[in-house]
Amino acid sequence: MFGDRTWTYAAWDRAVTALARHFLSLGMVHGDRVAAFGTNSDLYALTYLACARAGLIHVPINYQMRGDELDYFFTDSGAAAVFADAELASHVSDTPTGRTLPVRTFEDLVDVAGTDATEPQGDTEFEVVDTDVAQLLYTSGTTSAPKGAVMTHRALVHHYISCLDALDITADDRFVHALPLYHSAQMHVFLLPALMKGAHNLIVPGPVPGQLFEIFETEKITAFFAAPTVWVALVNHPDFGHRDLTSLTKGYYGASIMPGPVLARLRDTLPGMGFYNAFGQSEMGPLCTVLRPEEHDTHPGSAGRPALFVETRVVDGAGEDVAPGEQGEILYRSPQLCEGYWNKPEATEEAFRDGWFHSGDLVIQDAEGFVEVVDRVKDVINTGGVLVASRQVEDAIFELDAVAEVAVVGMPDEKWIEAITAYVVKKGEIDAGAVLAHVRGRLAPFKVPKAVHFVDELPKNTSGKILKRQLRG
Hints:
alpha/beta, about 475 residues, seven-stranded mixed β-sheet, about 25% strand
């Protein structure tokens, strides 16, 4: 369901077939890359599935991209065509590559999707095998230029089964999908698995807190996923605690680290809601580990255990396995793993070594397999030769009631190598002295920030992930 359009599953399937035939009739051929540049809609989701059915390779692009950033995706993927929202189409033609590409709008597909298409003609009309590439799933680019993870049909189906197994998605669920569908978490962890199970799915343009509370209440939503920054916005909204949210039984969070104090308030206010921490990264589809509701009390702060088809190792800087409880980089091996990075053989060789994918995440894994994420390797701060996890400092600052959001980074410094620096969004009266005093009372002296900057907002991508590289400058 989207806006005033509703679909039965039979009509949805016919729409996918009609669109797949339409795309091929436009001259697209097996293996062509098709860029999708749009906001959330039913047509966006149908286009992805139609590309998969037709043997085309779907390339989702962040709808906030402009100019050279947008052109990067067209040139890197070698896109043969672009589907865009009508109001975004002009941005495509503003780029050098975009001016040479056929650009069509999602709105133009409404009538095609409504065609009463016949069933596919056996296995020969759409010749697709499980090893064909279904999508180039670009990494978020929070620390470097985005890389296109090459996802096959086989990898994504394994991933969807992992999600169904770990996240308790059922046909009785009523989902609202509010985060961007170009992002792997909303599309591949929740929407596609929920479609596989036959759940009720409501797609909305974006995660606006006031609108979400209204939808939760009137639509009797049972399941909802959001990045921690969206959960923070919901907790800080005046409607929180005053609307009837008793229908909500499953709350999912992921895409970045959830502040401990925010999760505690959510659980206290919504006792009937079971929370799932879904941790992963694009190259894995993206789900890697899950902390289930019953495990939140026994393993607080954990990202859970590996999903069904995921195998892990934790290694030190020399690539040797560390003992349970020791810190190291987590590596993955799985049939849901991407094939490598599109057009980037050197980056592929670096990340996929010795048969394992090197994630760049610093973790501690215990003897039971529970993973605690310490930080991204690139976000660990080297201050005076001592390594500090930015997450630990952020959690301490988040305990202050006057703090709405916080991000901690290491800034280049002649004396300290990297100076711990906090960027804080306020929701009440507080000054830098109070922040520093609080951290000083919680953490070792070397973990106390050298500077606190108050900002109106933190830079984020549209999936809600904080862009720390922009803070570092």
